[in-house]
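Worked example

This section walks through a single chain of length 280. The input is the sequence exactly as stored; nothing has been trimmed or padded.
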Amino acid sequence: MEINAEVTPAARDYLNAVLAKQEVPGLAARVYVDKGGTSQAETCLAFCPPGEESASDIRRDFEDLTLFFDASSVPYLKDMEIGVQGEGKLQALTIKAPNSKKPAKPPKTFTVSQDCPALRVPYGTDFTVPEGAEVTITQALGGSFTVNYEGNLYRLSPEVARQLGLQTDIIMFEPPEDGLISEDQCRDSLRQVYDPEIPVNIVSLGLVYGLDINQEKQLVKVTMTLTSPGCGMGDIIADDVRSKTLQVPYVQECQVDIVFDPPWSYDSLDEEARLELGLI
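Given that input, the structure is written out below as tokens.
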């Protein structure tokens, strides 16, 4: 994966001096973006002792300075520059990352850099996309990716996608001032859950039948259905619902009940879904 970053000579000397003061042989620095692609994004540098870098980190040497780049942060570090300002004791490191707050756009095709656990769509069976495989992204929504490999569709979880350096624009929620779970934020979180085959979120699809919030227990209960009782991705979608809902401030527990009464039909689609699917 290409790293489009620059370290000025002055910054290289500055960082090498800081690392040397720690008196840890082989000590390097790690670059990552916290909350990348959002207005709260921050580009950070941290000490990285030998052997403590992540397996997915990307190493780059700037002459005698070694930096490890967090793979999931790479899309936000395009055109990054590390420099220094000031002189003497007033000298300080500067980091300019003009793309850190911009949502990352995934490539249409890419080569898988490691063996990746995946689920075959729509059956939900386990599969491993092998290292070196050429895949085409058919859907990148809600943090997960659906890819085409040798004519079949596979879902890559958000965790696997991050290991590959892939990112989509995920909502970051601000805690409400009243200290209570926000129903609007819960529904927005559910709008980040997608059927792996259909580029429409489960709220617009009409799959969500109920949303109950217990503020005292900090519990959210989601009652939902699937487009078909035989859908092999049902457990995966339910897990995604839990994962997304638990990102909402103050939610400590999420229960998902899947029901089939009443059965889902195209009449459940909202206007956004009908437009997306070309039904109006």
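What to look for: The helical segments are 9-21, 158-163, 183-190, 234-245, 271-276.
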